[in-house]
């Protein structure tokens, strides 16, 4: 079968601005959008996509942007990665949908087998597929509740778990995720995250004190026998790429095991090669009972998964878990293509190299700019937290100014953080070094304007 590979790796890997930003065709689309879409649906950029691949995104006016966001950590293997396009196209030609609950197919099983083998731990595992990260998180909680017979869910400050009712309740931040969308789901309890940079008594006390707060919540306030699971992002994504203080996650895992509480690692953002390992849990030798994946799983198609201990996953009754589209065959084919791309192109090592390059560039910018408070993250998931020089006070304005400079000069960046003061970098792992260096040159110029 042949097909036009318009947006594949043959897309010229250069930054190119040929109109004002946004250009005339993007502005036309913006006008149509304003009349057709609710105004609360906002986009980070005013330019409209026409093609993407490697490390560039070309807009409808033929401007080429360097992509440092991967559509929020989704196109880890690049946009239109050849194996993803080939497998998804072949599947499209066979059948688009049967509903796995009605008539099953092989691709679903193959994705489950891969996730069972790749996720941390050598224990017997099972995988169920879904469409979105929020759906995976919701279903991980369902599995944890039915397996333990307990109601409560413990989550952390700065957490992001999605936008459906339960996932939104589990998310920490009011604006924009929760404001006036309540009442929220019951039995969700929050405890401090071990966030070294902002820990009141200093980073050295962070792990022990945050752990103390968790044990106090579970043992004194809730009672361990009421707690089904603790849900944690091994590196908090939307919260600002917060890497928990060393040792914290291991203490949490041991505590959960002692009390029969299930540990759920939400790896929707960190998973599937992003941090230079298949899963961020591996950096701390953490073996969670359940693990959620989505974003990077299927090379841009919507697919999500809960992978976990066989005894936990088998506890749900027949027909209790599923969804009409869950584990769509085209998305499953795409996921198998994404796994191939990661393995055949050595993308785990590539993620680590990209991380080293980004940290080096950011450190060099920090040497001549007083606003970078901390550089952190792992692999191709790196952030800079910006502060008022000489303080740890969040500097939202600097993030806005640098982001705008990047955008106007052909570099797409993302922001994050509870205080909106974090620049986060999540380039596709297919981006060439020259493009990355060009992008960080633009970023450096952005900092110089402050
Ligand atoms: C993005 C994200 C989600 C939600 O995923 P959706 O596909 O947007 O529902 C959940 N958890 C984490 C850690 C995320 O980064």
UniProtKB/TrEMBL annotation:
Enzyme class: transferase
Gene3D superfamilies attached to this UniProt entry: Aspartate Aminotransferase, domain 1, Type I PLP-dependent aspartate aminotransferase-like (Major domain)
GO molecular function annotations of the record: (S)-3-amino-2-methylpropionate transaminase activity; 4-aminobutyrate:2-oxoglutarate transaminase activity; identical protein binding; pyridoxal phosphate binding
CDD domains, sorted: OAT_like (cd00610)
EC number(s) recorded for this UniProt protein: 2.6.1.19, 2.6.1.22
Superkingdom classification of source: Bacteria
Leader peptide range in chain numbering: none
GO BP term, example: gamma-aminobutyric acid metabolic process
Cofactor: pyridoxal 5'-phosphate
Catalytic reactions of this protein: 4-aminobutanoate + 2-oxoglutarate = succinate semialdehyde + L-glutamate; (S)-3-amino-2-methylpropanoate + 2-oxoglutarate = 2-methyl-3-oxopropanoate + L-glutamate
Keyword line: Aminotransferase, Pyridoxal phosphate, Transferase
InterPro entries hit by this protein: 4NH2But_aminotransferase_bac, Aminotrans_3, Aminotrans_3_PPA_site, Class-III_PLP-dep_AT, PyrdxlP-dep_Trfase, PyrdxlP-dep_Trfase_major, PyrdxlP-dep_Trfase_small
Pathway linked to the protein: Amino-acid degradation; 4-aminobutanoate degradation
NCBIfam families: GABAtrnsam, PRK06058.1
Sequence similarity: Belongs to the class-III pyridoxal-phosphate-dependent aminotransferase family.
Name of the molecule in the record: (S)-3-amino-2-methylpropionate transaminase
């Amino acid at each position: 079968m042949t097909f036009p590979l318009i947006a594949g790796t043959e897309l010229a890997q250069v930054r190119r601005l040929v109109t004002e930003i946004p250009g005339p065709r993007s502005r036309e689309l913006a006008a149509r959008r304003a009349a057709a879409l609710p105004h609360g649906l906002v986009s980070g950029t005013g330019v409209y996509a026409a093609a993407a691949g490697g490390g560039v995104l070309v807009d409808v006016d033929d401007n080429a942007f360097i992509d440092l966001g991967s559509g929020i950590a989704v196109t880890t293997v690049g946009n239109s990665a050849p194996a993803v396009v080939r497998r998804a196209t072949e599947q499209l030609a066979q059948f688009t949908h049967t509903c796995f609950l009605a008539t099953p197919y092989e691709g679903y099983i193959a994705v489950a087998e891969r996730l069972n083998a790749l996720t941390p731990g050598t224990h017997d595992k099972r995988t169920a597929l879904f469409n979105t990260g929020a759906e995976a998180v919701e279903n991980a909680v369902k599995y944890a509740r039915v397996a333990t017979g307990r109601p409560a869910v413990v989550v952390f400050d700065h957490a992001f778990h999605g936008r459906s009712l339960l996932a939104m309740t589990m998310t920490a931040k009011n604006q924009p995720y929760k404001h006036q969308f309540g009442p929220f789901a019951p039995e969700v309890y929050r405890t401090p995250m071990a966030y070294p940079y902002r820990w009141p008594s200093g980073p050295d006390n962070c792990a022990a004190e945050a752990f103390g707060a968790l044990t106090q919540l579970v043992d004194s306030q809730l009672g361990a026998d009421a707690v089904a699971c603790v849900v944690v992002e091994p590196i908090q994504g939307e919260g600002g790429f917060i890497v928990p203080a060393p040792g914290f996650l291991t203490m949490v895992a041991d505590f959960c095991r002692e009390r029969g509480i299930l540990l759920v690692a939400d790896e929707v953002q960190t998973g599937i090669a992003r941090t230079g390992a298949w899963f961020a849990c591996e950096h701390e030798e953490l073996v969670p009972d359940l693990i959620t994946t989505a974003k990077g799983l299927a090379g841009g198609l919507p697919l999500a998964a809960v992978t976990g201990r066989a005894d936990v996953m088998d506890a749900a009754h027949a027909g209790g878990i599923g969804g009409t589209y869950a584990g769509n065959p085209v998305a499953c084919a795409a996921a198998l293509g994404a796994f191939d791309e990661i393995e055949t192109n050595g993308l785990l090592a590539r993620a680590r190299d990209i991380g080293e390059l980004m940290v080096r560039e950011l450190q060099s910018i920090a040497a001549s700019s007083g606003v970078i408070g901390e550089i952190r993250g792992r692999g191709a998931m790196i952030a800079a937290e910006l502060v008022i020089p000489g303080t740890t006070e969040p500097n939202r304005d600097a993030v806005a100014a640098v982001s705008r400079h990047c955008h106007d000069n052909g570099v797409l960046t993302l922001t994050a953080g509870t205080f909106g003061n974090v620049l986060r970098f999540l380039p596709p792992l297919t981006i060439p070094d020259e493009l990355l260096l060009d992008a960080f040159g633009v970023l450096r110029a952005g900092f110089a304007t402050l």
